[in-house]
Give the backbone structure.
Amino acid sequence: MAIIGCVGSGLVGRSWAIVFARAGHQVRLWDSRPSADAVASLAATLEGLAREGAIPSLGDVASRISFADSLKQAVSGADYVQESISERVDAKRELLRDLDAILPPHTIVGSSTSSIPASAFMAGLACSARCLIVHPVNPPHLIPLVELCPSPETAPETVEQTSALMTALGQRPIMVAREVEGFILNRLQWALLSEAMHLVGEGYCTPEDVDAVVTHGLARRWAHLGPLAVGHLNAATGLEGYFDGLGEAITRVRDTLRTDYVPSEQTIARAHAALEARMPVSNLSDHAATRDRRILALNRLLQDFEQQG
Amino acid sequence: MAIIGCVGSGLVGRSWAIVFARAGHQVRLWDSRPSADAVASLAATLEGLAREGAIPSLGDVASRISFADSLKQAVSGADYVQESISERVDAKRELLRDLDAILPPHTIVGSSTSSIPASAFMAGLACSARCLIVHPVNPPHLIPLVELCPSPETAPETVEQTSALMTALGQRPIMVAREVEGFILNRLQWALLSEAMHLVGEGYCTPEDVDAVVTHGLARRWAHLGPLAVGHLNAATGLEGYFDGLGEAITRVRDTLRTDYVPSEQTIARAHAALEARMPVSNLSDHAATRDRRILALNRLLQDFEQQG
């Protein structure tokens, strides 16, 4: 059992608190702008998870999360701190400087940033060797992937210890060897999204259809096998055979992809309107709740497969 | 009940035969090079589906598929012909010319090609107005998505009738409004795969980790929501808010994507070796069978959700 400081009590910070608490750790959650909403939202999420049978005991998990009165109270004696404050480099720099002054000498600090390189706010501190980016997928209590991105000053032991912690929590850590815009997940996501917007923007297909290509096509395989593994199983001689056999076709497509495509405001508005017809913004939280229930059921299915081997 | 001619009895042709036969249609399967293997493989696939409870009656479905002795026998009186021969434009052109001479005047011809534009082999025939590409995802009896790509000569009624047929079969047709390399699915797939190979090739992450980003991250959402819908639910004001809020971060990533990246032979070999350690080529058919069982279970889960609304 470890003591975990969670800084920032927005959607991501609260979800992280659940990840740590359900694994048995003591969580101290703090926000520079405390909100009654955060307390209520956390309780509602925990109740929803208990209803779905996704946490063993609502009372036990809830009792392990306390709201701290100050940053110092949240992180004193903490073994690990997860930072999930707003996505502004100046705010993150200031927080890291504050932490640097009060952290115990063994504490690791992970940042949830999705777009700021570690070297932009984790460098030149006494604790720099123990800082790294630990980027979750929203929401981390439902989606296991976590990207570990060290800065040039991060110690290898920090990466190893954080990787072991994440694995013990039931997350799936991956390593980003050196700094790159968008890390791995958002690069893959935006490569696909940018080409999708190109196809919609240039009138090759509708927004509904481009979404269906993923939900009713690509994701049926990707839920089980990554993009390289899909290729490996699609040729009698594995991935090398896949690239050999499809080489020409892949080249012709690759040369015409437009992942640099900047969608016009009209294109974004048209896609937004198509989504709005199915999932009105006035009701987004209901749709997000439906999404979360479905992800939970999918997680169970995939866990069963893993256990069957 | 319709009569369906399936031309080509490889993996894709056999899977199409199952799609039509399980929906109650009479299928006549023909191949220019008949093989005993095809008969045995079809029987084995049907038995596997019956074991999983994925077809109502093995005997009924099997009895609706017969192997024809000639192209003429396969397509005489057919309401619809699905072409799944080898992916060579000259072979497809020759087949279409042969079909043109013998088809009844109402028969629609769909081609399973994944990479040849319709205008390259479906133009200038008496039956051109009734020809279009009907591109499945492998294997179509497990993955519902189908891309309908007309040639400039395809009649609108042909597209409408084929769309209605595919929907009645339980497939999910999407429309590709005009010719484009790789249609929609392979463009999205290769946009993601090319960036994945870039990240592996330049040493940002391992082949295992890039696959995990999809299986343990992106696909957990994409199984339920397409890429545009994911964005819509990720901002309080929907897709427009998503692009507004992340605009700068998306731009920085978009400008550095390398979906034009040509992986070296060494990079492909390294990724192949990593996959080989988990899924040896000597055992690929077992891994493909596991994949197929898992897709079937995922389909059931997603169908349950759709029925719940």
Summary: The two ends of chain A are 29 Å apart (CA to CA).
